[in-house]
Amino acid sequence: MDVITLGESMVLFKPDSLGPLRYVNGFSKTVGGAESNLAVALTRLGHQVGWVSKLGNDEFGLYVRNTIRGEGVETSRVLFDDHAPTAVFFKERKSNQDPNIYYYRKNSAASLLRPEELDESYFKTAKYLHLTGITPALSDSCRATVYQAMKLAKQHNQTTVFDPNIRLKLWSKEEAKSVLNDIAGQVDIVLPGVDEGELMTGHKEPEQIATALLENGARIVVVKLGSKGAYYATKEESAFVAGYQVDEIVDTAGAGDGFAAGFLSGLLRGWDFEQAVQFGNKIGAFALSVAGDMEGYPFWNQVDPEQSQQIISR
């Protein structure tokens, strides 16, 4: 296994028209969740990825599991709960604006995930463990599960990757800052956006954010800068890496997860940090051109420079 990721995925209902949801009558159904987004993107790029989670033993739970499994992700450690539901969320689309998101995830099956439910024999098969700041915000048991996953990763010399992915609808800024910095200080790679980095460190500039997170304990920090690309830093090297031009942005959801997948794909292929960050920028850009969280991620034959033309111009 190349990567194992842990976290909640939900049924996403996308409106068929723009405007306030109270005036929308039709929705299409798909799957959304930061961790499964990354798993699907990496699988399309040719990697073996396992997704660990808990779903309600209901029709939506089966739909989520089957959809993600159908993308080639390994789902044998996904649990089903007979008493808690699968979470859902809705997007509210407005022209030329980021969508509003409405979550219905309190007391969901995934929020009941417990540390003792993690299978150590499964975790030790992977090279990388990917976590986000969403999971520890769901519940105390989920937070404990994240720390247990990190413990297992350390025991088996895995590289740990942390995307803060802050969701302030789930917890306060103060609690988020405390917990996320604690986690970020125990992992190898941290992948914040600028706003996330500012909340965690108090700094606004990418260089200052990266320095603070390196001093906190991370080995590599990559600050995502949206259309401007990304800035990466270790204690030995640092650089800005330009982004890709996207002529028409349809949906920004999933771009950060796509970046993380592209970056990890580059590392798994043995590329240097700058090449890996550049590939992260490219995969993230693909996500912008399609509505939905994971629908826009490309397959390897679409981005392999020896097999395809560049679809997105630099």
Compile the SSE list and pairings:
Elements: E1 3-6, E2 10-15, E3 27-32, H1 34-44, E4 49-56, H2 59-70, E5 78-81, E6 88-92, E7 100-104, H3 120-123, E8 128-132, H4 135-138, H5 140-155, E9 159-163, H6 173-184, E10 189-190, H7 194-201, H8 206-216, E11 220-224, E12 230-233, E13 238-241, H9 255-268, H10 273-287, H11 300-303
Parallel strand pairs: 1-4, 1-8, 2-6, 4-5, 8-9, 9-10, 10-11
Antiparallel strand pairs: 2-3, 6-7, 11-12, 12-13
Helix pairs in contact: 1-9, 7-8, 9-10
Would you kindly provide a written description of the structure presented here, covering whatever features stand out?
- The protein has one domain (3-297): UDP-N-acetylmuramoyl-L-alanine:D-glutamate ligase (3-Layer(aba) Sandwich).
- Helix content is 35%, strand content 20%.
- The chain is built from 11 helices and 13 strands.
- It has a 9-stranded mixed sheet, with helices on both faces. It has a 4-stranded mixed sheet with strand order 3-2-6-7.
- Residues 307-314 have low confidence and may be disordered.
Describe, in short, the structure shown.
The chain is α/β, with parallel strands linked by helices and 314 residues long. The chain is built from 11 helices and 13 strands. Helix 1 (34-44) crosses helix 9, helix 7 packs across helix 8 and helix 9 (255-268) runs antiparallel to helix 10.
- Strand composition percent: 15-25%
Q: Find the CATH topology.
A: UDP-N-acetylmuramoyl-L-alanine:D-glutamate ligase
The major pleated sheet works out as: 9 strands, mixed
Q: Could you give the distance between the termini?
A: 32 Å
The oligomeric status of these chains comes to single chain
The count of β-strands is: 13
What is the tally of helical segments? 11
CATH architectural grouping: 3-Layer(aba) Sandwich
CATH-level-4 superfamily name: Ribokinase
C-alpha geometry:
globular
What's the average pLDDT?
91
Radius of gyration: 18 Å
Quickly give the structural class.
alpha/beta
Number of domains: 1
Order of helices and strands: EEEHEHEEEHEHHEHEHHEEEHHH
